[in-house]
Amino acid sequence: MTETKIYGHRGCMGTYPENTLLGFNQAIQQGVDGLEFDVHMTKDGEIVVIHDERLERTTDGKGFIKDLTLEEIKQYSAGSVFASFPNYMAEWDLERVPTLQEVLENTPPHIELNIELKTYLVEYQGIEEKVLSIVKQNGRDRNVIYSSFHLPSLLRMKRFDPTVKIAWLLNQRILHPYDYMETFQMESLHLSTKSVLANVHELKPLLQQIRVWTVNSDDEIKQLLDLHVQSIITDYPEKALFFRSER
Ligand code: G3P
Ligand code: CA
Fold first, then answer.
1. Which residue intervals define the domain GP-PDE in the entry (predicted)?
2. Domain limits of the chain?
3. Three-state SS for 150?
4. How far, CA to CA in Å, does 45 sit from each of 68, 120, 142, 154, 203?
5. How far apart are CA 61 and CA 27, in angstroms?
6. Does 190 participate in catalysis according to the annotation?
7. β partners of residue 9
8. Which ipTM was obtained for this model?
């Protein structure tokens, strides 16, 4: 049976600033199989890697990504607000919100990438084409999977390029999950920990295609490793990699 892959959620957001090159590098050094991160589009059409549609929670800036240019966003620190983390060092203050291009350039080709399109709160005209084109230009299409809670965004990606891998993000149980995968030609479903652990029996035939998020407790990591799910997405990849190595 194939070994469960370990994806670092927003890098390794349990211990390092989320969605920063610093966090991604830490996760890569720890030995992750893949990185999960989120994208939005700036006022001047650049794709940036950040979770929220606004700057406030993860940077020392203010405002919506859609209302700011990349140059404006780059003025702000994406590390300083994490000063309460035990590993914090003053150099974190120099971290900036990375562009998708920077993340791709920074990531070794063997690392899988799960790019989540945050397209359900703000409308970003043309974000799907832009993301696809950046990934293609960087020759990374083979080991990228696109996910979103917003199904139309995924279907748009598939329309532009039928070969792309897509995964629908869900945090609740759905009936007949395989029918969705088949109908929409999905590579995977990305389901929440709770929705998987509460429905193991009915998901059994699909577990090796399902990525599970966000798997953080020791017990949940171990249970999902035992179930041989396709991947787990965790804030603590180092811990998950250790548990996997013990098997
Ligand atoms: O991709 C799984 C997970 O990242 C979805 O939730 O809010 O952490 O982006 P969120
Ligand atoms: Ca995400």
1. 4-244
2. 5-245
3. coil
4. 10, 18, 24, 19, 39
5. 25
6. no
7. 36
8. 0.98
Cβ atoms of 85 and 72 within 8 Å: the answer is no
Q: Within 6 Å (CB) of ligand 1, which residues are found?
A: 9, 36, 38, 51, 116, 147, 169, 190, 213-214, 233
Tokens coding 241: 């990699």
Active-site residue, 201 included: no
229's tokens: 């799910």
Do 113 and 107 meet the contact criterion of CB atoms below 8 Å apart? yes
Residues 59-77 have pLDDT tens digits of 999 999 999 999 999 999 9
Interval 125-167: pLDDT, tens? 999 999 999 999 999 989 999 999 999 999 999 999 999 999 9
Cα dist. 121→40, 52, 101 in Å? 11, 10, 23
Domain 5-245 of CATH type 3.20.20.190: yes
Query: Would you say the pTM of this structure is higher than 0.95?
Result: yes
Secondary structure of residue 78 in the 3-state scheme: coil
Q: Whose CA is nearest to atom 7 of ligand 1?
A: 51
What's the gap between Cα 57 and its chain centre? Answer: 18
For a pocket test of ligand 1, which of 6, 7, 9, 51 has the largest count of ligand atoms closer than 8 A to its C-beta? Answer: 9
Kindly state the DSSP code that residue 47 receives in the 8-state scheme.
Answer: E
Local structure of 176: helix, strand or coil:
coil
